[in-house]
Specification:
heterodimer, A: seven-stranded mixed β-sheet, four-stranded antiparallel β-sheet, B: 112 residues, mainly beta, six-stranded mixed β-sheet, five-stranded antiparallel β-sheet, 11 strands
């Protein structure tokens, strides 16, 4: 079974530039999560999709971050414009159900450095 | 704010010893999960314990859950160098949107 795929693995951009991350979840997984993990901290949930609908985006900085999950499969997370404090690892995860008694499977993450 | 909080933040032990990590949370949960993260990698699910369970085993892992104290512990027995990683607890809320919320983690170092 293929795992959660993320790209790119690494990205370096200058502040005020834009960047996009891509995630392909495990086939058949209805729930998709995007987390931000700052060095030395735990993952912070940015947005959670159930199929192509948003379940929770309460911690997504909507003035600069956006995410979509077209057709309920792949997802993209965009930052525009980026700030220095956005430097972090962005993790995508998926699960069969909405976090209800099932484990989440994580991708390797995209390490973003904003200079 | 994060739902779960792990304790200690860092733990260093000798290979072969047992490692115990604790997690406290604030609100009612449906289940609690433990994950491991090796440096520079994604998280890997270790074990899930439901709110009506008190103890669960998986290989060298033992997890307990005390809902009255809103706490959980993860015990790794006979530790190995390969167990060196960060360990996170994640809680799944009962109320509102059911989301997976992680604590800050315990960084475990196993010394050979």
């Amino acid at each position: 079974e293929a795992g959660v795929a993320q790209s790119p693995r690494y990205k370096i951009i200058e502040k005020r530039q834009s960047v996009a991350f891509w995630c392909n979840p495990i086939s058949g997984h209805a729930t998709l999560y995007w987390y931000q993990q700052i060095l030395g901290q735990g993952p912070k949930l940015l947005i959670q999709f159930q199929n192509n609908g948003v379940v929770d985006d309460s911690q997504l900085p909507k003035d600069r971050f956006s995410a979509e999950r077209l057709k309920g499969v792949d997802s993209t997370l965009k930052i525009q414009p980026a700030k220095l404090e956005d430097s972090a690892v962005y993790l995508c995860a998926s699960s069969f159900l909405q976090g209800f008694g099932t484990e989440a499977f994580f991708g390797q993450g995209t390490r973003l450095t904003v200079v | 704010s994060q739902q779960g909080e792990e304790d200690p933040q860092a733990l260093s032990i000798q290979e072969g010893e047992n490692a115990t990590m604790n997690c406290s949370y604030k609100t009612s949960i449906n289940n609690l999960q433990w994950y491991r993260q090796n440096s520079g990698r994604g998280l890997v699910h270790l074990i899930l314990i439901r709110s009506n369970e008190r103890e669960k085993h998986s290989g060298r892992l033992r997890v307990t859950l005390d809902t009255s104290k809103k706490s959980s512990s993860l015990l790794i027995t006979a530790s190995r160098a390969a167990d060196t990683a960060s360990y996170f607890c994640a809680t799944v809320w009962l109320q509102g949107a059911q989301k997976l919320v992680f604590g800050q983690g315990t960084r475990l170092t196993i010394n050979p």
